[in-house]
Amino acid sequence: SAPVIFDDPVTSFDYRRVNEIAKRVASVAEEQQVIVFTHNIWFVSELLAEFEHRPKQCTYYRVEEREGSKGIVTRASHPRLDTPAKIRARINKAIQGASSADDAGRQERIDSAYDEIRTWCETVVEGELLADVTKRHQPNVAMQNLDRIKTAHLQAAIDSILPIWEKANRYIPGHSQPGDTLGIRPNLTELKDDWATLQAALKAYKAANGDA
What we know:
mainly alpha, 6 helices, two-stranded parallel ribbon, globular, two-stranded antiparallel sheet
């Protein structure tokens, strides 16, 4: 009855073997709890693909560094399972939390919101601007969606989204901050303005050809 624990079981395997191992792990999970530790994003993608139609049977966590402390385990969502709507809800929640938090907790919530903003930007680019033609951690190119991309309106969306995405990269644990901005943190007003800019850019792009 004990859980089965795997520590990076796909090291040095080719992608076909990775897929086979993911299927085997998922089949074991039907009978007992399985815990998998890995830094192989392809393996994670293959594993989560096995649970796309039963997401409640799979929980995704990440291990990160936060405020100088390493090994912080937090509940997370994977790009295969996330949507702009889910991320938007988390960003709005973080902004609300930052608005009501004291000084000690406000900055952490603001930084967390920028972490989510980075993911929102990438998800919106995949699903809205590029019409799901290509998606992170998925192997196929959906050529049939290519003509859904609104090329005449892409640049305006890029001009709004890209600078904020680049900015968000400086505020998340996985990226180093440039020396000229080291130690500079965003404030709540800045966060709200950036979030409003992103929402307006998406709305304008979707409305360009009469989309809802």
